[in-house]
Design brief:
Layout (H helix, E strand, L loop, with lengths): L13 H8 L6 H9 L8 H12 L10 H5 L6 H17 L14 H12 L6 E7 L5 E9 L9 H10 L4 E7 L9 H17 L2 E8 L4 E3 L7
Parallel strand pairs: 3-4
Antiparallel strand pairs: 1-2, 1-3, 4-5
């Protein structure tokens, strides 16, 4: 028998329990059911929440879901997938050590790491960002430029420095992740960094650092005297 929310006594329903007893008293299934709002024709939002949690294996795995994975779960359509992803992303941003990087003065590499570790530290693909700074080393803008295996054919200095000119940046910090978690630079990383530093010097836009982000650590070319 598939129990609907309306069949549950009012005082036992997730929303009512939240109001009467506080949000911290709710189970993971209850919280997810409230976010989902409704179930389907055949199952309640609470049962759908349970189904999703069983599918992902653990509540912490929700952070790794994407749109394609979500809509494969029976009962999760486009609208529910979007609401879930938006909620998960909002939670990630709330918990970031540094919520906003714009206008932040970069005085050391760890500031960059603390910001990007929650954005790309657990990504399954390499993400390459550029952080554009003014003459006081304050962040004007950051931009995701490439996704995929980082190599010379993918990293186009033209795209990196074009953006710098458009926003009148004085300097750049490059950032990318290693999905393996190993932050030791590859030969390709060294080659790309040297190439970008050389071009930056010619154009008058310094490349201050190239930071590789792992799951729990980082590597700074500047800190290791490689830039």
């Amino acid at each position: 028998m598939n129990l609907k929310i309306k069949d549950i006594p009012a005082f036992e329903r997730p929303r009512e329990r939240l109001i009467n007893n506080g949000v911290d008293t709710l189970s993971n299934e209850d919280l997810l059911a409230i976010i989902l709002k409704t179930g389907t024709k055949n199952i309640s939002s609470k049962m759908l929440a349970t189904k999703i949690l069983i599918e992902v294996g653990d509540i912490t795995n929700l952070k790794d879901l994407n749109y394609q994975k979500l809509i494969k779960i029976k009962g999760v359509g486009q609208a529910k997938a979007c609401v879930l992803l938006a909620t998960i992303e909002l939670a990630k941003r709330i918990n970031r050590e540094i919520p906003i990087i714009n206008n932040l003065k970069i005085t050391n590499s760890k500031i960059i790491y603390n910001y990007y570790k929650d954005i790309i530290g657990n990504q399954l693909q390499e993400h390459f960002y550029c952080v554009y700074l003014d003459h006081q080393k304050k962040v004007i803008k950051d931009k995701l430029l490439f996704i995929g295996t980082i190599n010379q054919s993918l990293i186009h200095p033209r795209e990196i420095f074009k953006e710098a000119y458009l926003i009148s940046a004085s300097a750049i910090i490059c950032v990318h992740n290693h999905p393996s978690g190993n932050v030791i630079p590859s030969n390709e990383d060294f080659t790309i960094t040297d190439k970008l530093v050389e071009i930056g010097n010619l154009l008058g836009i310094r490349v201050l650092d190239h930071i590789i982000i792992g799951k729990n650590n980082y590597y700074s070319f500047f800190e290791n005297n490689n830039i």
